[in-house]
Amino acid sequence: MSVAVIGAGAFGTALAVVLAGKAPVTLWGRDIGWAGTRENPRLPGIRLPDSLRVTDALQDCLADTVLLALPAQVLGGFLAEQGQLFDGRRLVSCAKGIDLASLTGPSALIGAACPQATVAVLTGPSFAADIARGLPTALTLACADPQAAQSLQHQLSTGALRLYRTTDVPGAELGGALKNVIAIAAGAAIGAGYGDSARASIVTRGFAEMVRLATALGARAETLAGLSGLGDLVLTCTSDQSRNFRYGLALGAGRDFAAGTTVEGAATARAVTALAVRMGIEMPVSNLVAGLAEGRIAMEHALDILLNRPLKEE
Ligand SMILES: NC(=O)c1ccc[n+]([C@@H]2O[C@H](COP(=O)([O-])OP(=O)(O)OC[C@H]3O[C@@H](n4cnc5c(N)ncnc54)[C@H](O)[C@@H]3O)[C@@H](O)[C@H]2O)c1
Ligand SMILES: O=P(O)(O)OC[C@H](O)CO
Which positions, given as ranges, span the membrane (predicted)? Predict the structure, then answer.
């Protein structure tokens, strides 16, 4: 079965590189001026296999299985313009975020634009550079249809990339989106010099609020405790490879951060704040990240806001 990957960023390119070892793969990007060099500047040091076709024509991408690896805030606009091309196929979201315009995750955006499609989510702890280098990685493949989940699990697993499957689409998707928000807070704590103990508190209390919101939105708590939730939270809150963590570091230290870097947690924090208000759920860490990212809250006040909350049961 053929595979197409929409979005030639770091993650889409990494997935295309490893999947090209077992099936015909086409990688679509809007700007592929680099394609002749067989190396994507977003994934430096990785040579694209000769079998991988790179294109800027969406008509080349009408494969059985299409991986959507665009940033979450871009996906809705892309689907509004191009979604009809892909309806009826197996569409796998690889984005980790909540769409600010609709306050929904990528799977709902795909389902709305492509009502005949089989919608799945690929998520979990993984840096593009690790996957592309063939390092061992375990991810979650979520699809409400158990047979499709099993089929996609086999199609998209490789020797080093091991997929676990679940039918809990909201759980897998929300874990991946919400952990980015908490990673910004963890980075800010380290950047501000609050230390590793403070980071551990943020990760743990952050996980508690991830579970609160996700279960209220229909996720299963055990999914949040798996690769797509806790697993990815741990990775993203502890590694300098993470852009969300590094963005938090810069916020905490009062440094500028490279404009144009994909930092999904910043917009998702604002979406989470809006959802939490709508649903009456307490999300103090996420609210703080939204305030920091919007410039409404200064870093020197952030700690007081958390420490001055009423004392309560864990
Ligand atoms: N990089 C990773 O390690 C990694 C790992 C797991 C998941 N993800 C997720 O994958 C998604 C994509 O991240 P990335 O790291 O590949 O980002 P990236 O910054 O490397 O690339 C983003 C890509 O999106 C393209 N793009 C931006 N706006 C567009 C538009 N309007 N139309 C078409 N293309 C557009 C850019 O040209 C670029 O190729 C994110 O949701 C991220 O959370 C990334
Ligand atoms: O670089 P980040 O922060 O977008 O994280 C990449 C992946 O989501 C880690 O699993």
Answer: none
Which pLDDT does position 307 carry in this prediction? 86
Distance CA(183)–CA(110), nearest Å, equals 26
Question: Does residue 123 have its Cβ closer than 6 Å to ligand 2?
Answer: no
DSSP 8-state class, residue 61: G
- The closest-lying atom of ligand 1 relative to the alpha carbon of residue 128 is 3
User: Annotated binding residue at 264?
Assistant: yes
**What pTM, to 2 d.p., does this model score?**
0.98
CA of 306 to the centre of ligand 1 (A): 32
Q: What count of other Cβ atoms lies within 10 Å of the Cβ of residue 268?
A: 31
CB atoms within 10 A of CB 59: 8
Of 30, 88, 25, 16, nearest in space to 58 by CA:
30
Distance CA 266, CA 152 (A): 30
Q: Which of 179, 199, 212, 270 is catalytic?
A: 179
Is the ipTM here above 0.85?
yes
Structure tokens at 134: 């063939």
